[in-house]
Amino acid sequence: MTASSRTPATVGLKRRKQPLARRLVQPFVAPFREKQGGAALDECEHRQVDCGTCTLEFYLPKPRFGVGPGDPDTVNLDRDESFPESAGEKRTDHAMVCLGASNWNYSRPKFEVTRLLPIPQEPYVTVTAVWQLERVKKGIQLESGNLNQLEQYLRDDYFAYLESEGGDNWEIRKEIQQDLGAQGRGWSQEEIDDEIAPQLIAAPASYEVQTFNGTSWLRYCWAPKKQYPRALYYSCLITPNTLLTVSFNLTEMVGSSLEHWWEPLLADAEALLQGTAVHGAKQLDQTPSPNAG
Question: What is the number of H-type helices and E-type strands within the chain?
């Protein structure tokens, strides 16, 4: 297969195998406990994108709803014009290009008791998965394979985006201080800080190293109000100034439902990352197994 070709959406991925004891009881408990929905891992499009110095390969699940725009087969990493979009606030407005997107839901088990109620049953959460290339900001050149440096770049970038003049947290502090000043009473700095703290947007707190197909990634969450994640990210460096980020953007439809869908999300994300590979010029013949994991 050439770097720019596509195959029909009939390739399957597999989730990580469960322990034997769990597999034995699965047919009996699944209707009552197993969440409905998830990524269509049994129906994926095998994608390869020629980036010149490397080829990116991944398996794109068939969307559960809606149809996305056409995706590129080639990207010229040397041209800033190749990154025409904004990654949005969750990725601090990095210039980006979308390579492919999919979506799915996680819903209540088939025989969950609330399904008997005569009310609409919203899914727990809607997931939009996006494979995207992002341009490193400010002309910074990162060292290949240096995950400490990549993590520091991401931390510094979130801090600058949120805390610099005009940033979200800067605006929050300014507005609250103005409101408190207008009340005509003296506020101690501690009281001001106590008023401001709950309103601030939190940057990702931790970065975890994950390795798939010989490439090391950083996994981190965007949870701006610390109540529940709004996005799960996997980022790696493919050139000194280009990131590959696989994002799982989350829209929670049922409040306080994180415990019901977080583990299935991680299982699907891991399966999709097992099918994602970065091939250098000497590695184009190494195809990730669609049944990896």
Answer: 5, 11
